[in-house]
Amino acid sequence: MTEVTAEMIERGRGVDPKTAAERRRLNAKVREAREKLTSAGSGHRTFDVELLQLFAKARQSSTFGFAIFALVAAAIATAWVPVLPLLVWLGVALVVLFISHALAANFCSLEAASVNVGRWRSNFIMAEVMLGIVWAQIVGLVGETEDPNGRTFMLLTLLLVAAMNATITASIPIAVYGGLAPMTAAIVTFLWPATLTDKTMPLTILACGTLFYSAILAKKLYARALDTLSFQSEKDDLISELEQSKVNSDLARRRAEEANLAKSRFLATMSHELRTPLNAILGFSEVMKAELFGAHKVPAYKEYSNDIHASGQHLLTLINEILDLSRVEAGRYELKAEPVALNHLMNDCRHLMALRAKKRDITVNESSEAELPRIWADERAVRQVALNLLSNAIKFTPRGGTVTIKVGWTSVGGQYFSVKDTGPGIPEEEIPIVMSSFGRGTLAQKNAEEGSGLGLPIVKGLVELHGGTFTLKSKVREGTEVIVVFPPERVMNALPRLDPEEPPPTETPRQARSAA
């Protein structure tokens, strides 16, 4: 068995430095996640940094698409605008797009702790205003043409740009408004007066309405981004709490293992230390009780010897029960399985307890099904279970009562035995108490002999080691019934016995032809 060291005991009293540091880290992580949840959208720095990161990543991923769109728009606009102004506009648009892309890339390369939220938000807003001004210039280039197709192209271009900006820059609403404002102003300034009597006025109004709708869409996308970050924070909070719970459970498990190890070592040591003088007490008290070296001059000494011997026997039984329960709870009770005839074993146990039942004027009845096959079980453990249950039944049954033993088949093919008495019974609310270690019911304390309260937990543990079930049924003033069930896989189904007088089977003509 592993030795209990001073370091282990010290760790059991306090957390080691590594565990303490890990718990502090998890506590800080949980606190940060909860602060993000309670202050989402209200200026919490970590939350604002995440919004800026969403903006920067979206701008980075959309730069190439905007550049291609600017090239296509410039190529189409050559139908109404000279090439040189379009080249100048295209160059300015690409430069502004590159600046915006470089700004986003620079932001993504920074650590979150070193980000100045206000300064970077202002930088992104200025970049979006510049992009809005660049796209507004196409209104001045194309809007002066008298061709309705040119104006329609300009309006559709602004519509597409506004829709794309609304989805890309939604995590910073002011940036959305900064990008849409120049395009809206350009439409109102250059197109509205010239189209008051033109047939294209409805299209112009539609374009302005689309820009307004893009602002509304950006606001909704911003709310959706807030919800997404809130869900992410909730997930992080949950993960952090799970990690913290895991650390706490690991710490509790380690302490429990160390305590169990200390308990096992204590029990092993104390059982040896107690058994040695106890054997001497039992031996000498038995010699004195039997008066092997002569009669006592004082008769009271013989009674004292009987009391000493009985107390020693009780103490020895208590030590054995504690050790058995400890082995069962620790999973170290090794079953030595062998074929066991359950009906014969119960009959033997009944004979062993017959004298005790006779002294109390208790009738023990036995009912067993015939020709039960053997079960594969630990005979010593099953015998201990049966003797414990019979002893309790006889002990709690009043004089003139009856104890009934039944052995038979279960409905699924297993085997069972039950012990039923006509004792005072156990109140339903006290059944969990009597099934716990050192637990004894109130009626048992009043009407029965002294006991350790370990018998039923030991019985239940031994039955469960066999894969069986232990059931306790009791009603006050009606009695108690205990049922022990062994599973079907424990039953050894024997082959049918051969009849030595039965003639060997004869070969039929059909079998002979098949063999030939």
Structural commentary:
The protein has 16 helices and seven strands. With 516 residues, it is an alpha+beta fold. It has three domains: 11-247, no CATH class; 260-327; 337-490, 2-Layer Sandwich (Heat Shock Protein 90), CATH 3.30.565.10. It has a five-stranded mixed β-sheet with strand order 2-4-5-7-6. A two-stranded antiparallel ribbon has the order 1-3.
Number of structural units classed as domains: 3
User: How many beta strands in the DSSP annotation?
Assistant: 7
Distance from N terminus to C terminus (CA atoms, Å) equals 68 Å
Weakly predicted, low-confidence segments: 1-15, 37-42, 494-498, 507-516
Structural class: alpha+beta
Overall pLDDT metric:
79
Shape: rod-shaped
Biggest beta-sheet profile: 5 strands, mixed
What pattern of helices and strands is seen along the backbone? Answer: HHHHHHHHHEHHEEHEEHHHEEH
As laid out across the biggest beta sheet, the strand order is: 2-4-5-7-6
* Residues in helix, %: 55-70%
Radius of gyration: 45 Å
Percent of residues in β-strands: 5-15%
How many helices? The count is 16
Describe the protein's topology:
Elements lengths: L5 H8 L3 H22 L6 H33 L5 H26 L8 H26 L5 H21 L4 H19 L9 H90 L8 H32 L6 E4 L1 H11 L1 H6 L3 E6 L6 E4 H18 L5 E8 L5 E7 L9 H4 L7 H6 L7 H11 L3 E7 L3 E8 L22 H7 L1
Parallel strand pairs: 2-4
Antiparallel strand pairs: 1-3, 4-5, 5-7, 6-7
Helix pairs in contact: 1-8, 2-8, 3-4, 3-5, 3-6, 4-5, 5-6, 5-7, 6-7, 6-8, 7-8, 8-9, 9-15, 10-12, 12-15
